[in-house]
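pinging the channel bc i need a second pair of eyes. not urgent but kinda urgent?? the chain im working w is below, pasted from the shared doc
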Amino acid sequence: MKSSMFVARGAALLAGTMLSGVPVMAQTTPVPAAAPAPSATPAAASAQAAAQASATPAVVRTIKTLRVEGSQRIEPETVLSYTKLRVGIPYTAETLDQALKDLQASDLFVDFSISGVETGDIVLRIRENPIINRVILEGNKALKSDKITKEIKLAPRQIFTRTAVRQDVSRIIELYRRQGRFAAVISPKMVSLDQNRVDVVFEITEGPKSKVRQINIIGNEVFNDGKLRGEMVTKESRWFRLLSSNTSYDQDRLNYDQQKLRQFYLTQGYADFRVTSAVAELTPDKRDFIITYVVEEGKRYKFGDVTVDSEIRDFDNKKLAASLPIKKGEWYNAKMVEDSVDQLSESAGLFGYAFTDVSPDFQRDPETLTMGMNFHIAQAQRTYVERIDINGNTQTQDKVVRREIRLAEGDAFNSFQVKRSQDRINSLGFFQDKMEIKQNPGSAPDRIVLETNLEEKSTGELQLSVGYSSLERFIIQANITQNNFRGKGQVLRAGVNYSTYSKSIELGFTEPYLFDKNVAVGVDVFRRDYNSFNYIGTDRRTTYSQVSTGFQIRTGVPLTEYWSLAGRYGLSYDEVGLDEGTYYTNGRCDILKAGRYLCEAIGNRWTSSAGYSLIYDSLNSRLRPTAGQRLSFSQDFAGLGGDVKYIRTRLEGSKFVNVGSGFIGSLVGEAGYIHSLEGARPEGTDKIRITDRFYLGEPQFRGFDIRGIGPRVQRQYYQPDPTTGKQVLITDRNQLVDDALGGRAYYLVRAELEIPLGAGARELGLRPSVYVQAGSLFALTRPLPTATFPTITDAAGNVTVLPIQRLLTDSAGRQLYLVPTTDATNAGAYTTCAIGYSAAAGGACAGASTNSIAYDTPIQPFKETYYGSSATPRVSIGVGVNWNSPFGPLRIDLAKALVKQKGDDPKLITFNVGTQF
């Protein structure tokens, strides 16, 4: 509501609306009180009484009667209780003046006066403060109204006071300062209403955010300004930091940056470093800050003698000192000192000493510029777990959490097991991140209570999305998963996926602790329809289709804390076929149209397989690991019945390292090999069927298209050159037929570094990374050529490849003939009769027409080339971004293939929207 809306109330109503003649700014003093009204005010009455007292001798009178006039909501007795005036007591001018001051201090009245001074019949005339009808905020955009109203004190149906208004203006200013808006202006106004009510209006001019224009550092000689600015959280405002929230001024951040500077210098050996002053100056336009630090670097120290003095007899002081990261003669580093304290505390914790006091003693020598270190370990008692408390789990059952804790009540305390328990609970994904197990003193000095404070989060996932993928084109996806079904840690999932080239429906259930034993059991049921494809130009053409229906039963048991064994059995029925309209001739797969390798894939078969996996897992989180490693060796044996027989072996490994400053490094590798257990197959035919082989490319191998590397057959067609008329091969890649055949062996390695961003980007869900990948797919029997085309050579020696003319036959293989178009009865009809005509294939011929031999559509001449069966690594480098967008998870990659082999299909940009990554 704008102030213009109050015009209709009349000029007299607006005469007193302004609470202050000067608007309040973020750097000004609180709003001054409004000018006094024409009527008598407390100050005027007090001055009048004082003047009378000074003009005449002090006269002592007695209060005969005492009453209150003008009270509406406040009882007269309550008004009198704020003063010391009572009937029958003597009074003077000073007594009455103090009564007026007491009424003013109550902050309940807008006007008050005293009459009847001469007669002793004292009357207190008051006008009560109005009641607030509404509190209105105008002009606030950066701060929502609900965030402001919960901070201010004024509210409807409360008593209006100017003091409260000034306090609320200060609170609103402080809110804007926290947002970095130091140019904010708050103008409070009051609109009078009937029945002694008012509307309070705060007109807000927010102004721009005050950015940090410049950071100056004075006194640094060893490190330049740029290096020191890089250590600070606060950054200078620049266009490329558009998404960063660290370019706005914040007093708390200024203090934190001083600590960051000190920490940096202390890690570089400058033990005497200090920040002598830090000043933030606001520019005259109140838009920017200029921050200036004055520092004293001091001298650089090296570590001197490093010793450990332990009062715990179990420890060998010399061995402990030798194991510390600090070495004599190295530059002093305060971070190493902290790490040494943590290491000694953890070492004590491994032996059951939970509350060990490790204190470093610094022995500074300014003459030799050395810093000797002695770590004193105070006497402590071995500690035992008295109790394990689990709090905050309202849905998740206690046993789900307790079975992840590696200590039991009564066990000797072990800090390593506590850390391991913490990682296992976080890996469940049922609770908010960064849950920590607190270590509290127990009922005795040698007892400890482990307190697990949990904050549950939603464990159900419902995904309904329509997206677009460079792999699958348009995608419709519906998945529902409950990762903590019934609060027992069970996983129940169902999913339906539909795209142009794949369709699937899957149901799955996993019980992680069968009968409360550490044995996991799961079952999956699925139906998957997949269409393989190749490209002709930009046209994506379906090759073979594969429909798989089946189930899998899974189980897993831990062997040690980090090692586990998983087993599985699966049974599936695969139906593999080709488009008969495109690749069939006379009801059979035509190798000239499809290629031998595709015709060989056709058929229906059962696959019965059993497998196992041996797994080592020390990751600190299964969801988003930042430390630890994982290794997996798996084998699957197909041939327990069914039509397929092979052994598939896979090895996978990953290692994650927190390299500091929010950077997460990872090294991920995998490899696999399939060995056939079947007998010999025809020449040029691999023992492993095309549907069982490995494939490599997008999305695993970024920088290459889907199935973009490995064994493949490319078909180039011949055509006449429009300039010379000679026959040439089409070399344009967009005109090739490219069929990926897969391989029996592969390997892939990726090194990746996740890059941290500012708080603003993190809130958007952006997680960028850079990576380099190397891998290959190989080991396949070279297929035989599909066909040999006839050729002719002209007088000039030019060779022309001719189309293949094939006799036209019926489905039984009988030769077909074409009745001449001049025949009177069956002109142009096909028949199995060389002379005459028979409507039935192979039937008796009637008539005397001499029919011509019928030929099928000629096959355009082409050249097939086999590529890619080489173990030589392909290499790509790129940058990718994960984004939890409003449309669903989005992954964008820009990857360049640096090393590739002939026949490979590189791809620069890939993305996925609406699917998990």
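so The first strand starts at residue 24 and ends at 25. and The chain has a mean pLDDT of 83. — does that match what u expected or am i reading it wrong
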